[in-house]
């Protein structure tokens, strides 16, 4: 790729000015475009940014919820499929806000017991929205706001950065919080998500992305024969309301042992108390694994393969945990292109600090103080074999 063409959207403009066809510029490398996706009732415009690389990989990001709306990835024959669940219009996201398809989650990923936590002796209450608990930042989390967007690039990457100001007291959390999420794509088929946040008062923060993956393609059945490895010797057991007990328990000898490659379906129906807590009727995975990589972005955290298409997803993250959730609450949604998303129709890899951390003295801290910057980097690397 020439340096000229490496400069993405601008490159395209320049390439056209130099008389090159738009298609050849796109085929040669990284590009970006954006357009209006929807206009909300109050007149707010929702934009969609589309990032592409020279291998056909394409990520679409909405300013609504800073949401990854679609992700085209080649299989072993080079055939593209959209590997994330989502909707064709904003209405879908608004009407099914409790599935969090592709959304940026904040201020607090996963559950806070009874929506409560205390900080420096002061008690805070987040409105509950999941039985007795607060889930994913409460009833109106970051996934239900329209973010600002700007184009960002660095050498070898094409990106878009979304930003949001969460006012002091929003959903009960203290501090004026400025948060940024950057999605970018490179020529190694890596989708990178970087987060940054600052506050003017001490607060707690646990950001993640809630993409649901199906490596065979969204809406192409369930994920039970996709094979996962989680580099995690421990997990955080939960009670019947999905709140951690506070223990870090070994996965060895349980259906949560993914330290060697195993199909999601192999143990999903096992008669095990934790699986029943996650999904009382048929079982399912919905747990926080304690990653052996322990914040090291250079170490593989998880690896999932679809034997049919050959698509493979490798996960790297600076976060200490990952929530693997197998779509246990999906009950035949109609998503993009009219496709049906069945029970167990996808898996999430939500890189995070552990659920309910503010109430669990043994868990890594989720506290953020003024003059400090929260950062997180997560890489989703795709390949096919
Ligand atoms: C997951 C959570 C699940 C479920 C899902 C959204 O992160 O662990 O229990 O609430 O989000 O439907």
From TrEMBL:
Stored Gene3D superfamilies: 2.70.98.10
**Keywords in alphabetical order:** Carbohydrate metabolism, Isomerase, Signal
Pathway the protein contributes to: Carbohydrate metabolism; hexose metabolism
Give the catalytic activity. Answer: alpha-D-glucose = beta-D-glucose
Kindly give the CDD domains that the UniProt entry links to this protein. galactose_mutarotase_like (cd09019)
Record-linked SUPFAM superfamilies: Galactose mutarotase-like (SSF74650)
Q: What is its EC number?
A: 5.1.3.3
Q: Which InterPro entries match?
A: Ald1_epimerase_CS (IPR018052), Aldose_1-epimerase (IPR015443), Aldose_1/G6P_1-epimerase (IPR008183), Gal_mutarotase_sf_dom (IPR011013), Galactose_mutarotase-like (IPR047215), GH-type_carb-bd (IPR014718)
Signal peptide start and end residues: 1-27
Tell me the superkingdom of the source: Bacteria
Family to which the UniProt record says this protein belongs? Belongs to the aldose epimerase family.
Full protein name: Aldose 1-epimerase
The species this protein belongs to is Pseudomonas quercus
